[in-house]
C-alpha cells in the first residue's frame, strides 16, 4: 500500500491556528517538532500546572483552551512568521495578531478572550511544557488520508477541508479508509519508520467550519451514523527518525 505525503501540518499553539510545512525532521519516540509547543491554560487548569512558569509534566487537554469548548477558535489561522520570529494569527472576527510567545503571551490571552465562552473557566496564560501538548500523552503523530476525507465529504454532502482535523500528515493515494487496517504495521518514508498505534476518536471540535468558526454539523454523530464509530485518522510513533518532505512516498 503506497501513497505520498500531501500535507505536513504543525500547530504551534494547541487549538489555536496551524501552518503547512514543506519538510520536517522526525525523531524517534518524539512528536513532530514544534507541534503544540504552546497551550493556553485556563483557570481550571492552573491547579494542575504547578507554581513555576512552565508545567513540569504533560497535562490533559481539559486543562487548556480547546475548540470543543469554543467553536469560534476553529477559525483561528496562522503560525510562525519566520522572518519576524513571531507567531502571526488571524480570525474573521478579530484584528490580526503578531506576538512573541516567549514574552507576549498575555497579548494572546486578551485576543482570545472574546472568542471564549463567558461560562467557561477563563484563559490565564500561555505555557510551554516538557513535551508537546497533544491530546494523548504518548509522543505520537496524527496521520489522515485525503481519500477518506473525500469519501466522507461525498457521504455528508459537505466540504470539510483539512484544517478542522488538526492532523500532522495528510496522505494521498491510499484507498478510502484503508488506514484503519494499518494498526500495528510499520510505515516507511525512505529510511523513516512509523509504527501505527491506534485510530483517532473525534470530538465535537471537528463540528465547526474553520472558515467561520460556526458549527455546521455534529461530526461525532455523523461519523457514528456512517460507520458505527467516531474515528477518523490514525496515530503513529516514530521508530526510526529522519527527514520527510512533501510528495515523499509512504509505504505500508
Automatic annotation (TrEMBL):
Domain MOSC: 94-252
Pfam families tied to this protein: MOSC, MOSC_N
InterPro entries found in the cross-reference section: MoCF_Sase_C (IPR005302), MOCOS_middle (IPR005303), Pyrv_Knase-like_insert_dom_sf (IPR011037)
Domain of life: Bacteria
GO molecular function: catalytic activity; molybdenum ion binding; pyridoxal phosphate binding
The protein's name: MOSC domain-containing protein
Source taxonomy: Bacteria, Pseudomonadati, Pseudomonadota, Alphaproteobacteria, Rhodobacterales
Amino acid at each position: 500500500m503506497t501513497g505520498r505525503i500531501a500535507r505536513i501540518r504543525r500547530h504551534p499553539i494547541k487549538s489555536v491556528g496551524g501552518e503547512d510545512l514543506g519538510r520536517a525532521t522526525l525523531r524517534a519516540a518524539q512528536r513532530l517538532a514544534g507541534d503544540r509547543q504552546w497551550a493556553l491554560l485556563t483557570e481550571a487548569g492552573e491547579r494542575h500546572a504547578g507554581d513555576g512558569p512552565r508545567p513540569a509534566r504533560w497535562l490533559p487537554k481539559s486543562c487548556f483552551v480547546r475548540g470543543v469548548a469554543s467553536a469560534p477558535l476553529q477559525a483561528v489561522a496562522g503560525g510562525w512568521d519566520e522572518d519576524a520570529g513571531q507567531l502571526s494569527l488571524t480570525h474573521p472576527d478579530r484584528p490580526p495578531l503578531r506576538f512573541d510567545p516567549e514574552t507576549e503571551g498575555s497579548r494572546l490571552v486578551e485576543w482570545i478572550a472574546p472568542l471564549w465562552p463567558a461560562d467557561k473557566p477563563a484563559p490565564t496564560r500561555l505555557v510551554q511544557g516538557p513535551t508537546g501538548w497533544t491530546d494523548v500523552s504518548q509522543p505520537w503523530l496524527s496521520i489522515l488520508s485525503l481519500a477518506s476525507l473525500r469519501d466522507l465529504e461525498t457521504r455528508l454532502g459537505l466540504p470539510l477541508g483539512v484544517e478542522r482535523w488538526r492532523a500532522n500528515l495528510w496522505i494521498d493515494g491510499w484507498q478510502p479508509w484503508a488506514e484503519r487496517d494499518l494498526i500495528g504495521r510499520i510505515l516507511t518514508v525512505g529510511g523513516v519508520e512509523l509504527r501505527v498505534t491506534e485510530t483517532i476518536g473525534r470530538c465535537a471540535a471537528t463540528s465547526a467550519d474553520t472558515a467561520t468558526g460556526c458549527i455546521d454539523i455534529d461530526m461525532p454523530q455523523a461519523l457514528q451514523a456512517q460507520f458505527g464509530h467516531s474515528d477518523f485518522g490514525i496515530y503513529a510513533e516514530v521508530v526510526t527518525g529522519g527527514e520527510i518532505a512533501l510528495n515523499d512516498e509512504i509505504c505500508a
